[in-house]
TrEMBL record, chains A, B:
Claim: Isomerase is one of the keywords in the record: no
Domain HTH tetR-type: 40-100
The organism of origin for this protein: Streptomyces malaysiense
Pfam families given in the database record: TetR_C_1, TetR_N
Source domain of life: Bacteria
DNA-binding region: 63-82
InterPro entries for the chain: Homeodomain-like_sf, HTH-type_TetR-like_transc_reg, HTH_TetR, Repressor_TetR_C, Tet_transcr_reg_TetR-rel_C_sf
Name of this chain's protein: TetR family transcriptional regulator
Keyword vocabulary terms for this entry: DNA-binding, Transcription, Transcription regulation
PANTHER family with a match to the protein in the record: HTH-TYPE TRANSCRIPTIONAL REGULATOR RUTR, TRANSCRIPTIONAL REGULATORY PROTEIN
Length: 252, 252
DNA sequence: AGGCGGCGGTTTACGGTATATACAGTTGGT
DNA sequence: ACCAACTGTATATACCGTAAACCGCCGCCT
């Protein structure tokens, strides 16, 4: 389906690497060779190891040599399985997405809120478990691997009972992952080391410039950044669901 | 306020660089020296040049030597003004955020929807003008520069007439930037080169695996990804505003 | 059975990155 | 006038991704 030794980038970045090799990789549509020594690795195993590394030490720590070192092979060995690092990251994302969300029995109408809730929570869990997903999926074209499509499919399915048309369902999906990713980012910020130090510095700074940011100081005095037990994910989700409900109600 | 020659990272990454130097930089609280030659540059000018470079060639193209080359100085010269690259990126973000949004006369209640709309649109414009903002602000703790705080302040101010408490206003703000960033990402994806090529490949792939993604195929047949003239930003914004309205209505 | 060619892994090398360190030239305060 | 502070440079280190050439293994074909 795709030739194995395809090299066409000139030595710089991506420039123009054939998307088809990446797709073949993601979908496992590689024709495996017959002759030659048995490969020690697979793209899957490499991606899994790299993802684990990223979980432990962050995405920046994922380098070809470190990943290869984990297998006891040289860095260049990986290039027999993966066209380059960008493709490896893509595989890492796909790897970490798992088998897709477990959705409740949809069946009845009116339960679409619960279904969407379940989807969103599980998606948020994935992002929480792998904070590097945020940067790995920032920019660049994605949502092409089978597992990512599975998530998309599940979300669209959960929205079918709403009666929204396809375009609207898609836009609600965008709203949902936007929420998930944003909350994940917020939490990643806060779970960082020295978070308390930063908070202290920020509070001090704000106090010194209170008059420049009246609404912010007022909101802070009103408890804006105090933890009040309300999950921002749940709050946002409720807002979105209410918004969707408003469309449905207004149209029928 | 902050000593100028502070170096404590061992040669690796960030590790532990003093946050106070960054804050002093962002807020212009550097005490400027008296003796010695007049500096040719300023952090601001460097950040502006770097941002322009990023606008033209992308964030990856921003390297110390390229930025320095634009001024005709050596790469190391920049380190007299900026502690390191991460701080430079932070400055770039701050630079690009401009003077903050121009908000309409709030005055009357009930116009908060218009105010929030104006805020969101302008924020989206910034992201659209500088796509690298997405990756530059992915992960890492932010929202500490005066300009970013200005945006936050404006959003919170716009939400004051809603009667929501501080924590809720903050959560709505999170919802809004989540929307903006997500839409920006979506648009960046689509305006990429070879976008058509990718779409073709994706459509082909989906057709071959239609049975695995029933909801997705159904949604596509229903026009999910056809451009239908509805701005996804407006759609999401309406959903969020409706959601907020539901909270207000339900509580009073 | 033999060998050839596809393939896995290594080594080497190149150009790029951030940035530590040591230095030279310039300037203002004393 | 001199010294100390400051700016910019040159040099060096340690990484990074990856191109290219190479060697040894192995299954298919003759």
């Amino acid at each position: 389906m795709v030739e194995r030794d395809s090299v066409r980038s000139k030595g710089q970045q991506d420039e123009t690497r054939d998307p088809r090799t990446l797709l073949a990789l993601l979908w496992g549509e590689q024709e495996q060779p017959t002759r030659g020594p048995k490969p020690k690795l697979t793209p899957r195993r490499i991606a899994a190891a790299a993802a684990e590394l990223a979980d432990r030490e962050g995405l920046d720590a994922v380098s070809m040599s470190k990943v290869a070192g984990g297998f006891g092979v040289s860095a260049m060995a990986l290039y027999r399985y993966v066209p380059g690092k960008t493709e490896l990251v893509e595989l890492m994302v796909e790897e970490v997405m798992g088998e897709g969300p477990e959705m409740p029995e949809s069946g009845e109408d009116g339960h679409w809120r619960a279904a969407v809730r379940a989807w969103t929570r599980q998606c948020a869990d994935v992002y929480a478990a792998h904070p590097w997903l945020l940067t790995a999926t920032a920019l660049r074209r994605r949502v092409l691997g089978p597992r990512q499509l599975r998530w998309l499919d599940a979300a669209l399915a959960a929205l079918e009972p709403t009666g929204l048309d396809g375009a609207q369902r898609h836009r609600v999906f965008l709203l949902l992952i936007g929420l998930v990713r944003n909350v994940a980012q917020q939490q990643a910020d806060h779970e960082e080391e020295q978070s308390a130090e930063w908070d202290r510095l920020a509070a001090d700074l704000l106090a010194r410039h209170a008059e420049r940011f009246p609404a912010l100081t007022k909101a802070m005095a009103d408890g804006a950044f105090r933890a009040d037990g309300v999950d921002p994910l749940e709050f946002g989700l409720d807002r979105i669901l209410d918004g969707v409900e408003a469309v449905i109600g207004g149209r029928e």
